[in-house]
Every structure is written in C-alpha cells, then in structure tokens.
User: Fold this.
Amino acid sequence: MKLHENNFDLIRLLAALQVVYFHAKAHLPNEKLDLGWMEVVFRHFPGVPVFFVTSGFLIYSSYSRMNNDLLAYSINRILRIFPALWACLVVSIIAVCVVDFSIFRSASLGEIVPWLMAQLTIVQFYNPSFLREFGVGVLNGSLWTIPVELQFYVVLPFIFFVSRKFHIKLDFLFLLILGLSIGFMLMLKSGDDTFFFKILSITFLPHIWLFLMGAYMARYWNDLSFLFKDKALWWLIGYGGLVALSVGVGGGAGFLIHTILLKVVLCGVVIACAFTFRHLSGKIIKGEDVSYGVYIYHMVVVNVLIQAGMSSEWWAEPFVFCFTLCLAWVSWRFLERRVLGYKKGATSRSREILNFWNTKIIK
Assistant:
C-alpha cells in the first residue's frame, strides 16, 4: 500500500470544521446552532489533537523520505506554514481597519510593530492590549497552535540528531519524550490559570506526545498497517465504547488515565480512517486542501461579525462557515498550491547559495 493513498486531507478538513463549529457556537449567541446528538459525537473528535496526530504521521514520513535532509525539510515546512499565515495577517489587518479603524489609530507604533513581528515569526499567541477591544478580545486566538506545531518541526530532527550523536536508540528517545509529555499534559490539566501554566500550554511539552504517536505509527507502518488498514469501523466502535464508559468515570487518577486512553485510541481512529476507503478524500475534495485556510481564517470572520454587531443574526453561523471556506479556497488555489510547487526549486537555489558561501566566501 502506498502511503500517499490516504484520507488525511479530508480528515484535516473535518478537524478544522470541528474547531470552526465550536468556536462559532461559543462566540455567536444563536441557540439554533445545535446539532443535537451529532454535536455530542462531534465533540469527541477534537480538531487540534487530530491535527497533531496527522502532523506526526505525515511529517515523520516526509522527513524519512528525505533521508534526514534538514535543508529540504526546513524549506518545505516554511513554505507550507508561513506564506498563507502572512496572507491571513494581511487580511486580518484589512478587516480590522474596515470594521473599526480606531483600533489601530489608538495604538502606538511601539505596540503595533512588536505585534507585527510576533505574527510574522513564531509568536502568534502574543495579544497586545490594543486588540483586546476587538471581537472576542483576541484577533485570531486559534493561531496559538502554530508555534506549537513549529516546535514539533524543530524537535523531530533534534531527536534524530541526539540519537546519532550520542548513539541512543531512536525508539528510546521517542518513548522518553512521549512519557514526559504525558506528564506535562497531566500537570497542565491539574493546574490553574497562572502565568506558568499559560506558558506551558503554548509549548510543545504537553502536546508533543500526540505528534509522536503519529510519528511512531509512521515509523513502524510496515509492521502496524494491518491494525489500521480498512479497520476504521472497529476502531470507531472501540472508541465509542470508551466514550460511553467515560460517563461513569469519576475524578482523580481514574479520570486522568481514562483521558489518556481516550486520546491514544483516538490516534488509532485517525490513522485507521486515513487508510480505510483511502480514495474517499480524492473523490470528495479532489485535491483542494483547504483545511489550513479554514483553520487560520475562521476566527477573523467571527471577530468581524462580533465587532460589526452582527453576531446575533440568524445567518451569522452559516456565514462564518461559507465565508471561511471561500477564503480558504482562494488561499489554497492562488497561494498555497502555487507556493508548494516551488519547494524543489527553492531547495536547489538554497543549496547553491550555501555552496557558494562555503566555497567562495568562507574559504
């Protein structure tokens, strides 16, 4: 079975739509936005953990195919994340200016420039005081996961480096970091709303175990594929059973263990769904990978509606979905897809520059 024959694009889109649904429900006060029992089901497939697992599987597979080529790997990750993210920043600024220009007019240059630098680099969670009067108080709160994902991208090659440098088995490092990460996750769940725990939540520490679960399954795919290929129904039944059991689980250690078990089985569900009816994604979305755009744009749309005083309109939630999908499609069709087509050329040119630097400049 070829690894590129899968439903990951469709899974990521569904995960992004799950995030959009619950954010719209939380911030747009329309009682009609209720899917009943489907909402209960939807709630147990949280978008962010699904993103982390799929990312682990795909990024590990990609890095392995590149034979640990750090330059190509870095360029690919940069081209996948930043061009669309910067375009989203431009759209966000335009949206704020159109809806309420006083937000920026009241801010000093000393406030605007650090915020712009944070958004253009790796500190997207930074939220200055002048933006707390816009919408929900955070212009694009969903972007907190971008720095976390970028940290994953750095940690993975670092694990390989440590393994080679100090002759430590890669599996041992994976399991060590995975175990420590679960410990940080439990610490975060049992912590309070202090500054320490806020900072901890935006680091890779409590989240990377999900990424490594996906990476580990990719690492041993030849041995483990029989557990997942065309087995989505069985994984879904098992996960549904665990969810039903969670009703009777109390607090304390039992609850924490059950939470971990649920997430572990969810990882299996994601991978099994990716390799069951694995041409489904191609038939439904036909290569239009709009999931990233849906994720990064939807809170901008929500905030614009709130600031414009339209959050209570009956059409607000459908508008969020429709307009977000339109923005995501435009981003994919006219930016993301084209930029990704430059990956090989960008890697070659970067290698030429490095060779010139090493041979002509340094020497």
